[in-house]
Amino acid sequence: MTAIETHDLTKYYGDLCAVDHLSLSVDNEIFALLGPNGSGKTTTVLMLTTLLRPTEGTATVCGYDCATEGDMVRKKLSYVPQDMAVDIRLTGRENVVFFAKLYGVADPRAQADEALAIMELADRADDLVKTYSGGMRRRLELAQALVHEPAVLFLDEPTLGLDVAARKKIWEHIRKLRSRGMTVFVTTHYMDEADRFCDRVAIISRGSIMAIGKPKTLKAQLMKDVITATISGEFIPFELGSIRFLGRKEDDVSFTAENGREALPLIAEALVARGMKVHSLSLHEPTLDDVFLNVVGSSDEPRSFNDQQFRVMLRRRK
Ligand SMILES: Nc1ncnc2c1ncn2[C@@H]1O[C@H](COP(=O)(O)OP(=O)(O)O)[C@@H](O)[C@H]1O
Ligand SMILES: [Mg+2]
After folding, report:
1. Distance between alpha carbon 232 and the CA centroid of its chain, in Å?
2. Does residue 226 share a domain with residue 90?
3. Which of 13, 61, 197, 263 could form a disulfide with 171 if both were Cys (CB 3.0 to 4.6 A apart)?
């Protein structure tokens, strides 16, 4: 039975289409829903975890219908929301045992201890959670999610707000769960993390899937070098023969070219000739950020992708 399947899954909030005919099949992998704030990631997860009713379309988890077989679906999955709270007045173990009892597992204490051990929290299990770091609290949430041995794990922005080292550690743990046979459905707006740690990603924008596949495949599809220039001055997109404008992210403007080394001086020259100051210029292989610009950003319009501006832009488009 496929872990997660959706067909035309759709959610409207009033007139706003937050998730737009999403069709997906996810099984035996770490799958990332990747997109900026407001693109519909959380809404998708809420529907898959039975917490929100779709406006249209269907979703199943382990073969059970999320809308009509909620009880069975909830037995199969765990969900760690973006802002889940652990009780900081309790110890780590008390938090996990509480969850184990909620799930009605056979031996709450033993299964809590096992989950704590998997998350490398055994030695701190008897300390109050208020003495834990942010990364440890996240790991405790994962331990809670593991305690009834779910087949499918949903994680909404699991590394948000953590420092670089803690993020890496969380991902190592997520990979470990994957190797124990769990299907992991994760949302993130960190392209680099999805690229490094996920088996497959779907890039979504305004509730629609714009690209889906292995990070490596998506990047290879660009089949080009990417040249990024950090500039100041007013930028108007342009093309130079086969050198294409890819997109803009704050002061960085990117281009694709068949041969990056040849394109580099041409781009520098063209930017200066158009009155811009070029602060740096770099040549790199495509990243998921570039894939995102390619599939979401239009080539004829300067775009800025900080989250706030992106939201404003989306609102204007509607
Ligand atoms: N309860 C709600 N009522 C109305 N609009 C909502 C609600 N929840 C989310 N939205 C809107 O739906 C869109 C998708 O939101 P969300 O799924 O939270 O995106 P993401 O998780 O990718 O940031 C956004 O435009 C957001 O403002
Ligand atoms: Mg969200």
Report:
1. 31
2. no
3. 197
Pairing of strands 152-156, 77-80: parallel
CA neighbours closer than 13 Å in the CB half-sphere of residue 255: 31
CA of 52 to the centre of ligand 2 (A): 14
Largest Cα separation within the chain, whole Å, is 72
Spatial distance between the Cα atoms of 112 and 99, rounded to a whole number of angstroms: 8
Chain centroid offset of residue 273 CA: 39
Amino acid symbol at 128 = L
Structural domain of 280: 219-317
For the Cβ of 307 lying below 6 angstroms from any atom of ligand 1, the answer is no
Is 195 in a helix, a strand, or coil? Answer: helix
User: In this structure, are 154 and 298 located in the same domain?
Assistant: no
pLDDT in tens, 272-287: 999 999 999 999 999 9
Choose the final residue of a domain: 213, 248, 275.
213
Chain-centroid distance of CA 75 in Å reads 24
CATH number (domain holding residue 102): 3.40.50.300
The HSE-up count of residue 292 (CA atoms within 13 Å, CB side) is: 25
pLDDT tens digit sequence for 192-229:
999 999 999 999 999 999 999 999 999 998 878 999 99
